[in-house]
Design a protein that fits this description.
Helices cover 37% and strands 14% of the residues. The strands form two sheets. Strands 4-3-5-6-7-9-10 form a seven-stranded mixed β-sheet, with helices on both faces. It is globular and about 55 Å long. It folds into two domains: 62 residues, Rossmann fold (3-Layer(aba) Sandwich); 154 residues, Rossmann fold. By secondary structure, the chain is α/β, with parallel strands linked by helices. Helix 2 runs parallel beside helix 3 and helix 5 packs parallel to helix 6. It is built from eight helices and ten strands.
């Protein structure tokens, strides 16, 4: 299970566990510890890394707009918490506005467009929750007439389009995918539970840091370059970190079921 909001799903998960139904959480957890295992990526760390990179790219002074996902969603809240731990340490960095985007590209674009209308060229950085939201925000700046090299430094993640736009329009960008490979790990853990194999209470899926070339900072170094990680021959909405390899094609993929 994956909780849209942690508090709402908690009593249901607790009830299932009391009835002897083992529950494996993936992506988003509940408020209690009443589950067998939780497969996640470190959202707090990602939020901190994004914020630290922005702070250093702005040379410790500038204005940020924040575009988180859904109120109450664990992945969104944790990334915001991690970011604010960092931003709060630098008085020269100001959060101009924070607006939720439902993880949506369309809403991300609408929200960013309204912020551009309100704050204009005083926006120095875009902190977004994920690649869809980041893509929408970049599209809003492009539609507003910002030229290549003028669009604020940005956070991407997950989706090919955000990285391709960053490369095309010379936008300094950072990317930490929220690995969809967690789904496969969750299935394996669930099968282990059913077979009686001991499992960990929490599994952390690894995620690399990608930065556009020339945009590493003192604290944030790239595991890969955005320019090498993006896939121009793949669709705009292609999910990059599937866990199935760079040549994965959903139209031809055949799962290798165990006998």
């Amino acid at each position: 299970m994956s909780a849209a909001t942690a508090e709402a799903l908690d009593p249901i998960v607790t009830r299932a566990m009391k009835q002897g139904i083992p529950v494996v959480m993936v992506d988003r957890s509940v408020t209690s510890e009443n589950f067998v295992s939780f497969i996640t990526s470190n959202n707090v760390a990602a939020g901190r890394i994004y914020a630290q990179w922005i702070v250093e790219k702005l040379n410790y002074k500038g204005n940020v707009i924040m575009l988180p996902g859904i109120p109450g969603a664990g992945s969104s809240q944790e990334r915001v918490e991690g970011a604010m731990e960092v931003f709060s340490q630098y008085p020269g960095v100001k959060i101009l506005d924070t607006q939720y985007t439902d993880f949506s590209q369309a809403k991300g674009k609408t929200v960013a467009a309204a912020m551009i209308q309100k704050f204009g060229k005083s926006i120095d950085a875009i902190w977004s929750i994920a690649g869809g939201t980041g893509t929408g925000a970049l599209e809003a700046f492009i539609d507003a007439g910002y030229k290549d090299g003028e669009i604020p430094v940005t956070v991407c993640g997950d989706i090919n389009s955000c990285l391709l736009l960053s490369i095309k329009h010379k936008i300094p960008a950072i990317n930490i995918d929220y690995p969809s490979a967690m789904g496969g790990i969750a299935i394996k853990v669930a099968l282990d539970v059913l077979s009686g194999t001991p499992v960990l209470h929490t599994y952390q899926a690894n995620a690399d840091i990608m930065v556009t070339k020339g945009d590493e900072t003192a604290s944030v170094k790239a595991d890969q370059w955005v320019e090498d990680y993006a896939q121009p021959d793949k669709p705009y909405d292609y999910i990059l970190d599937t866990g199935l390899g760079k040549n994965y094609d959903p139209s031809t993929f055949k799962p290798d079921y165990p006998s």
